[in-house]
Structures are given as C-alpha cells and as structure tokens.
Amino acid sequence: MTVVLRVANLCVSYDHPRGAVRAVEDVSFSLRAGERFGLAGESGSGKSTIALALLRLIKPPGRIDSGSVWLDGANLSELSEDEMRRLRLASIALVPQGSMNALNPVLRIQEQIADALADHGAMPLAGALDANVRDLLGHVGLPADVARMYPHELSGGMKQRACIAIAICLRPRVIIADEPTSALDVVVQRQVMATLGRVQQELGAAVILVGHDMGLIAQFVDRLGIMYAGRLIEVAPIAEIIRAPRHPYTQMLIASLPSLRGKGMMQGIPGLAPLLRDLPPGCAFHPRCPRAAPRCREERPELREVADGVVVGCHFA
Ligand code: SF4
C-alpha cells in the first residue's frame, strides 16, 4: 500500500534556562494510506510533541532541530508558512485533546466549520453551507441542530465529535488524533473512537492516534509505536505487540493492563519516567528495567528489526 507519510530522524528540542532539552530524539516511522498507527507512552515521552511537529506547530521555546516529514511526496520542512497553512486541515488535520479549549467558545459550531472552509477557499456556494454542515455533522453522529449551538451547550462527547467534523471537513489524507478521548467517560470514549474509526474508513484516511491508554489504543490501531524518554523503543503490528512484546518497557505496559480473566493486583511499572534534561546514560530505561545489565548503563541501544515489521530498541530483544 502507498506510503502517505514518512517521518525520518525527527529531533525536537525545547529551550530551558539550564540548556536545551531534547523532547523527541531521532524518531522515524511511516504510515500507509488508510492505516491506523498508534503512538503510546507515559506523559512527557514525546508523543504529543511528535504530533505537533508533524503539523509544524511547534512554537518557541520549542523547535524542530532536524529530520524530515514527507507527506504525499512533499517535504514539509521545505514549505513556506503559507503553503503549510494551506496544507493543514486540507491534507493533514488534527483532532486535539481538550475539545473545550480547541473550539472557539463564542462562535456557533456552523461558524467554526465555515471558518475552516473559508480559510482554505472551500466555502460552498451561497445556500449550500447549511446542507454541507448538516452532512458533516451527520457523518460524526451529531444532529443537525448542533450547527446552531455554542460549544458550552454540548456535552464532552459532542464537542469531541464537533472537533472531528472540523478535522474532516476538507477530507484530509492524514488525521492526527491527540488523546481525543481524554476527560471523557469510558462509554463516551468508545462512541468517539467508533466515530473516528468510521469517518477514517469513509475517507480512506490514515490516522495517528496518540495516547497513553494502551487498552483504548490497542482496540483501534493496526500498528503501534511505543515511546520512552523521547525515543521510539518498539514498533510492531498491534497483534504482534500484544502477543509477544519484545521491549521490557512494552512488556510491563501490557502486564499493567487490567484483564477480565486476571485475578489479584495489577502490576505497575516501578519508578518514574526520567527527566528529559537529566537522562540516565546508556539505555534511558535501565533504572527501571528488571533485565538491565552492565552494558545497558553505558551503551544506548539502537532500534533494529528483530522480525518482519517489528523494530525494538533493546540490547537483548
Ligand atoms: Fe532493559 Fe537493557 Fe533492554 Fe534497556 S537495553 S530495555 S535496560 S535490557
């Protein structure tokens, strides 16, 4: 299948009074048309920074240090700000976390959709806007009268669907969903994910789902990348990663998932994620890793392919 998005050696830093902090280190992956790819990891592992970097939305004190992002053959780092602005939403769109903050509180939903269309020169002919918005809202399971409502009149799940409606209004090739169900209850989470999955299939778009809820992500994606301390440490098809996780961190993440058959206490991961400005030498996971060996404290493991479509960054995988 065609590769629609390719990320190569992406590095992102944030300036800090004590020196620059590398938030994303040498991240590479690609996404095929129609594929669902997940990026999972603890808070601060760099996954949301990657999402913003793909859209070139990293603002100072952050910056993209190096690497490239190719979307349908276009190198995004070579585009002007104007070209990039036109490409956002039209070709690569974001479903943000925290829909209440993402939606404009003083504009009705229809006006916000119209804004997005007008900004990209895609405003329907006079009289067609109402039908267009109705159609869009119907696609995400919202009734037509939501068009006339303000964000504060909608429930959390409805606001998130409105964000999905805006994200798909120009039929993008890639949708980045950054923790789209955070702060929603589990029933609404499932409904929002089902909506996202349905519109993604209708559009044939590829999706990058960013989050820390392994259970939710595992039910949605085809392939999963695990982030730790700014690096991708394992990438594999979802069935493979659930069946046979290779990296000790991935193994512990999966062991910490609740199971209907499981009895007794769930196992957490001991210790805390390291501070990015003070990473341990060698493998950044070694202070928490039950399999750490002397080599792990000195030598950083590189990502290497250990099976078909499975890459792992551990000396002993
Ligand atoms: Fe653990 Fe060593 Fe593998 Fe790092 S390289 S995950 S410390 S075994």
Describe the structure.
With 317 residues, this protein is an alpha/beta fold. It has one domain (3-259, 268-312): 3-Layer(aba) Sandwich (Rossmann fold), CATH 3.40.50.300. It is built from 11 helices and 12 strands. The radius of gyration is 20 Å and the shape is globular. Bound molecules: iron/sulfur cluster. Residues 247-248, 283, 285-286, 289, 291-292, 296, 301, 314-316 line the site of iron/sulfur cluster.
Number of strands: 12
Which ligands, by name, code or SMILES, are bound?
Answer: iron/sulfur cluster
**Ends apart, CA distance between termini:** 28 Å
Number of domains: 1
CATH topology label: Rossmann fold
Give a quick summary of the entry:
With 317 residues, the protein is of the alpha/beta class. The protein is 32% helix and 24% strand.
Features:
single chain; 317 residues; alpha/beta; Rossmann fold; eight-stranded mixed sheet; four-stranded antiparallel sheet; binds iron/sulfur cluster
Please specify the SSE layout and strand pairing.
Layout (H helix, E strand, L loop, with lengths): L2 E12 L6 E12 L3 E5 L6 H8 L7 E10 L2 E2 L5 H10 L1 E4 L3 H4 L6 H11 L9 H11 L16 H12 L6 E5 L7 H18 L2 E6 L2 H7 L2 E6 L2 E7 H6 L4 H8 L38 H5 L5 E4 L2 E3 L5
Parallel strand pairs: 3-8, 3-9, 6-7, 7-8
Antiparallel strand pairs: 1-2, 1-4, 4-5, 9-10, 10-12, 11-12
Bound molecules: iron/sulfur cluster.
